[in-house]
Amino acid sequence: SSTMSFSEAEVQSARGAWEKIYVDAEDNGTTVLVRMFTEHPDTKSYFSHFKGMDSAEEMKQSDQIRGHGKRVFTAINDMVQHLDNSEAFLGIVNPLGKKHATQLKIDPKNFRVICDIILQLMEEKFGGDCKASFEKVTNEICTHLNNVYKEAGW
């Protein structure tokens, strides 16, 4: 498994950028999911057990979507706290990837979709520098998740 190559400065600026959006984890996580479902409606098929998926307004109010949005942000937060420790980082990424590949059977391209929406939201709210300092993190997350999928025979 590949190790990560973040300088101390990159880790610090990535964490600074992430903290800004993580302060409102539930609201921002919800915004990210609602955008994903709206802009990529095929992703809704993975959440057929969720109620109130018809309009963006309904989705914003959904306790299920709010809960999942917060879970997504919490998982990323755990990864961000371990950017300087490959072993700990992979300890979070590997089981998460395995679950999405084998149990949930989520197409891995959706991880990139979510990451791109997060970057877009960061840029809208906090500007291009914020987005730029987090881009490398999203690339690492997606690369490692894709590796897990490959190992799972996806």
Keywords, separated by commas or semicolons:
single chain; 154 residues; mainly alpha; Globin-like; 7 helices; 74% helix
List the helices and strands and how they pair.
Blueprint (H helix, E strand, L loop, with lengths): L7 H15 L2 H15 L16 H6 L1 H18 L5 H18 L5 H18 L1 H24 L3
Helix pairs in contact: 1-4, 1-7, 2-4, 2-6, 4-5, 5-7, 6-7
**Unreliable residue runs:** none
Elements, N to C (H/E): HHHHHHH
Beta-strand percentage range:
under 5%
User: How large is the radius of gyration?
Assistant: 15 Å
CATH architecture: Orthogonal Bundle
Chain-averaged pLDDT: 95
User: Structural class from helices and strands?
Assistant: mainly alpha
Number of domains: 1
Write down the CATH class: Mainly Alpha
**How is the CATH topology named?**
Globin-like
Give a description of the structure.
- The chain has helices at residues 8-22, 25-39, 56-61, 63-80, 86-103, 109-126, 128-151.
- With 154 residues, the chain is mainly alpha-helical.
- The protein has a single domain (8-152), classed as Globins (Globin-like, Orthogonal Bundle), CATH 1.10.490.10.
- The mean pLDDT is 95.
- Residues 5-150 form the Globin domain.
- It comes from Probosciger aterrimus (Palm cockatoo).
